[in-house]
Amino acid sequence: MTPESLTVPRRVVTGHDANGVSVVLSDGLVPVHRFMPQDGVGFYEVWQTAGAPAPIVADEGDPTLDSIRVPPPVRGTKVRVNEFFPGHLTPEGRQSPVHRTQSVDYGIVLEGEIVLMLDDSEVTLQAGDVVIQRGTDHAWANRTDKVCRVAFILIDGEFAPELLGVLPDDVHAALMTEGPHDEPGAHEAGA
Q1: Model pTM?
Q2: Domain Cupin type-2, which positions (predicted)?
Q3: Residue 28: CA atoms inside 13 Å, Cβ hemisphere, count?
Q4: Collapsing DSSP states into helix, strand and coil, what is residue 111?
Q5: 190 CA to centre of own chain
Q6: Which residue of 82, 113, 114, 117 has the fewest C-beta atoms within 10 A of its own C-beta?
């Protein structure tokens, strides 16, 4: 697959004019997307918020333009669509690196089929299925011959003390804090 094969989603952003009237601020293709040929995955950064409650202003700049990071901002959210192309499995049968984020992620399979790989099991998800990913080590694999599209809504989280008591001692140091193949610290904090 090539970047030309990507199916970039349409994004409609609403807001308010100077009189408080509801308006469409933008309507077009998601402007931030990246194809990772080593994994056969397309990333489409749809929107993100920083802070909770999320500030709602009349018109704001595009919050996705900084960088592509896997986790959401601190106390924030992130919406992305990923396309997993067939034919990109590692010898271990994975398509993504094994990773963990300190977040609650809702994954909605829009099209195709994807395998969620956990420490002790695998779950096959199909179009219409929803997975709630709660800070676990995991990886993804498209083992079919068709593209799989998944919408992810990520919400910043924090491991509870009782869970930290059973997780590896280096769990915080091992969290994915940047992009899938970025070195830690490759982006400015909060980007």
Answers
A1: 0.88
A2: 90-153
A3: 5
A4: strand
A5: 16
A6: 113
- Residues comprising the chain, all counted: 191
Q: Quick one: which of 6, 138, 131, 161 has its CA closest to 70?
A: 138
Query: H-helix or E-strand containing 75?
Result: none
Q: Which two tokens stand for residue 10?
A: 């349409």
The H helix count followed by the E strand count for the chain is: 2, 11
pLDDT, one tens digit per residue, over 130-179 is 999 999 999 999 999 999 999 999 999 999 999 999 998 999 888 888 76
Q: CA–CA separation, 66 vs 93, rounded Å?
A: 32
Look up residue 115 and give its two tokens: 């395998």
Over residues 50-90, the pLDDT tens digits come to 989 998 888 888 888 876 778 888 999 999 999 999 999 99
Q: Which residue has the tokens 């959401």?
A: 72
**What is the C-alpha to C-alpha distance for residues 182 and 185, in angstroms, rounded to an integer?**
8
> Residue 41 to residues 85, 94, 159: CA-CA distances in angstroms?
6, 12, 28
Cis amide bond preceding 168, omega within 30: no
AA identity, residue 101: T
Write the CB contacts of 47 (distance below 8 Å, at least 6 apart in sequence): 11, 13, 63, 64, 78, 79
What lies within 8 Å, CB to CB, of 91 at 6+ separation is: none
Distance CA(62)–CA(2), nearest Å, equals 26
128 dihedral zone (left: phi>0; alpha: psi -120 to 50; beta) = left
